[in-house]
Amino acid sequence: MTNPSSLDTFCDWLKDTGFSLTLQSVEWIIPLVQTVHILAIAAVVGAAITLSLRVLRAKGRPQPGTRVASTPFLAIWVALPILLVTGALLVIAEPARDLENPVFALKMGLVLVAVAVTFVQQAWLRRTTGDGGPVRRLLQSTLAVGSLALWAAIILAGRLIAYIQSF
Amino acid sequence: MWIDTLLSSLEDTPLATAVRENSVLFPALECTHVLALTAVVGSIAMLDLRLLGWVQRSRPTSQVVAEVLPRVWLAFGVAAITGVLLFSSNARSYAHNNYFLAKLVFLAILGVNMGLFHRGVGRKIGDWDTALRPPTGARTAGVISLTLWIAVTLCGRFVGFTRVTLPPP
Fold first, then answer.
1. Distances from the Cα of B110 to the Cαs of A157, A166, B32, in angstroms?
2. Looking at chain B, which residue has its C-alpha nearest residue A153?
3. B79 within domain boundaries
4. Per-residue pLDDT of chain A (167 residues; tens, 9 = 90+)
5. What is the ipTM of this complex?
6. Dist. CA B125–CA B133, nearest whole Å
7. What is the nearest CA distance from B39 to chain A, expressed in angstroms?
8. Assuming Cys at both sites, which of A40, B81, B131, B164 could form a disulfide with A82, CB separation 3.0 to 4.6 Å?
9. Distance (Å, rounded) from C-alpha B13 to C-alpha B135?
10. In chain A, what are the domain boundaries?
């Protein structure tokens, strides 16, 4: 790299702030924050597996609908803000490691898609009464399995941030 | 120590050497391990919280057990296999890591906790299946499981931050 970009300047500034320096210097903070991050994504994965299998197994029987599906969706919506806060702390602690990393950008893109898919999935299940018919069932299964695959990809990308660096 | 000799020979197996030296294998196993552990913890937590009477109170506990346990075992199998392979690559170092040892102890207690649940209060699940708040024994099993899975995750993450460097054998 020749001239520092404005992103470089921002990362340099952020990593020298008092808050970032505290996160960097107390050695147990990062692993602790990462653990909370992992536990929160575990809640999301557990919920996404439940939703996928419930929708796939609902074949011919009335859809689980809002009542049964609400716990997994609730788990996802509770976990997301925790993921956001712990994720932000990790970025503040090591700005360039994330913000200048293409895998991190990919991960954030996937998160946006996964959140949108989850939103659509929930809104749709809520409005479906009874079985919903084969076409609707197929689409709902696709959404459920698709969101599970997205969350899995997000976890993989998250782990690979540590391995793939481009600066 | 004899155990270090044993672990040394584990490290020298072709598979362990491949995991240690191949630049793709270790991260691939680690990714699979993390995916599997999120599936384990995320699934078992749902059952633990039902045992505590905090979520899914309208469903019988046995239904949550039946829904969750098969996937917990499947994911745990994947986590255990990938875990053993990761361990084999640097066996002596991990064996001297206190976080790693603590993780193993917690996993053993989790196994005992599960065994006691199924032999004890879980055997008479028919008596309290639809109870909004399961009996003390069941709630205790839920608290222990939830707490120790969190501890296992924590220890696992700390292992990655505390590589023990050993003198050459």
1. 30, 41, 22
2. B35
3. yes
4. 557 789 999 999 999 999 999 999 999 999 999 999 999 999 999 999 999 998 888 765 555 544 556 889 999 999 999 999 999 999 999 999 999 999 999 999 999 999 999 999 988 888 776 666 788 888 888 999 999 999 999 999 999 998 887 64
5. 0.93
6. 12
7. 6
8. A40
9. 49
10. 6-160
User: Chain A within 8 Å of B99 (Cβ-Cβ)?
Assistant: no
A1, amino acid identity: M
Tokens of B132: 């909004």
Longest dimension (CA), chain A: 63
| Three-state SS at A142 | helix
Q: Which residues contact B63 (CB under 8 A, 6 or more apart)?
A: none
Q: Which residues of B touch A46 (CB under 8 A)?
A: 38-39, 41-43, 45-46
Residue A10 to chain B, least CA–CA distance (Å): 27
Q: Domain limits at B70?
A: 2-159
DSSP-based three-state secondary structure for A3: coil
Is-contact A137 A60, C-beta < 8 A?
Answer: no
The Cα–Cα gap between A89 and A66 comes to: 34
In 3D space, the residue among B79, B59, B68 whose CA is nearest the CA of residue B152 turns out to be: B79
User: What is the pTM (predicted TM-score) of this model?
Assistant: 0.92
Q: Distance of CA B124 to CAs A126, A155, B46, B134, Å?
A: 36, 39, 20, 11
Q: Does B133 touch chain A (CB under 8 A)?
A: no
Q: Identify whether B167 is part of a domain.
A: no
DSSP string, A68-112: HHHHHHHHHHHHHHHHHHHHHHHHHHSHHHHHT-HHHHHHHHHHH
**DSSP H or E segment with residue B120:** none
What is the number of domains present in chain B? 1
The answer to whether the CB atoms of A38 and B56 lie below 8 A apart is no
Closest CA to A122 of A71, A46, A83, A80: A71
